[in-house]
Fold:
Amino acid sequence: MHYGFNPLTLLDLVPLSTSNDIMHRDGKAKAEYVQSLHERVRAQITKKNEHYARLANKRRCEVSLDIGDWVWLHLKKERFPSQRKSKLSSRGDGPFQIVEKINNNAYKLDLSSEYGVIATCNICDLCPYFADDREDDDGLDLRTNPLEEGGHDEDLTSL
Structure:
């Protein structure tokens, strides 16, 4: 008979175990048992964390940049609101030169004052810049120019 309690499953009716190995131990033996339990749990957590890290870093490649390297900068809306006013504006800018290496994840760039932000950037916002070996870099524009005169795909006079 259970007063004030409606059992939902059969497990609610099973009495709590009062095993003598835990309840009636002396203090030293109980402390050793708890310490060994903590060690087993800690080892299991470490093993699982290593497994999760191995899965998460499976396709990750390490990028190392040095002082003086040139990089492209990814312009995020949150950090560069004045440069990302529309969805058609460029998402990257550069190349910029690395002035200082703070650690493997943070670098200080040679940004101009027009950006209005701190020049320290995370590695996830940077991409290595590989210069083109051409002599005429002064007119190099990576975007196509729709106003540029050139040949037609087909002869329009024959239509």
